Amino acid sequence: MIALLEHLACTDDCPGEVIVVDGAPESNRLAKWINTYDLPFKSVYIRSPAGLTRQRNIGVDTSTGEFVFFLDDDCFPEPGYFEAMREAFLPGVGAVAGTLINELNKPVSLRWRARFFLRLVPRGEPGRYYRRPLPCRAG
After folding, report:
1. What is the reported pLDDT for 100?
2. How far apart are CA 128 and CA 131, in angstroms?
3. How high is the pLDDT of residue 88?
4. How many Å apart are CA 65 and CA 30, to the nearest integer?
5. Number of helices and strands (H, E) in the chain?
6. Under a CB-based contact definition with an 8 Å cutoff, are residues 44 and 14 in contact?
7. Contact, 139 vs 126, CB < 8 A?
8. What is the pLDDT at residue 139?
9. What gap in Å lies between CA 31 and CA 23, rounded to an integer?
10. How confident is the model at residue 135, as a pLDDT?
11. What are the strands, taking DSSP E only, across 15-92?
12. Which of 17, 82, 119, 121 is deepest in the core (most CB within 10 A)?
């Protein structure tokens, strides 16, 4: 997480605030680091029980910005990422997703292929805007 914060601090288009919702057990190192360094954005550190959905909800509830970007601690956005994501919001668009470019050549797992074959995942193309929800059956 510290590497991501350092990366964001060096980007030309860094976000106005970063909320770190930490679900790691008993780790004060990150909280101390955030409070020690003068970052070019508002930073908020929150301890939380583990759970991705819970942590994202806490982040959304805490955020004061117009946009919310979810980043994993091993995600390092390319230059212009935040600007491109903000520009993608057209009337009626409520969410935009990025593409993981470092995993494009990774073999597709059997589990993922089965979910795709059973139409349990949307068949969307990266970089394309769909006005209507994609057909996605659950079960």
Report:
1. 64
2. 10
3. 82
4. 23
5. 5, 2
6. no
7. no
8. 40
9. 12
10. 47
11. 17-22, 42-47
12. 82
Q: Which two tokens stand for residue 132?
A: 């209507």
Cα–Cα distance for residue pair 94/85, rounded to 1 Å: 12
Q: What is the per-residue DSSP string for 48-83? A: --S-HHHHHHHHHHH--SS------TT--PPTTHHH
Q: What tokens appear for 109 in the block?
A: 């797992």
Per-residue DSSP letter, 40 = S
H or E, element range at 34? helix 29-36
Tokens of 105: 């050549």
Is 21:72 a contact under the CB 8 Å cutoff?
no
Dist CA 121 CA 114 (whole Å): 10
Q: Give per-residue pLDDT as tens, 11-57.
A: 888 888 999 998 887 677 888 888 888 899 999 999 998 888 899 99
CB 34 within 8 A of CB 52: no
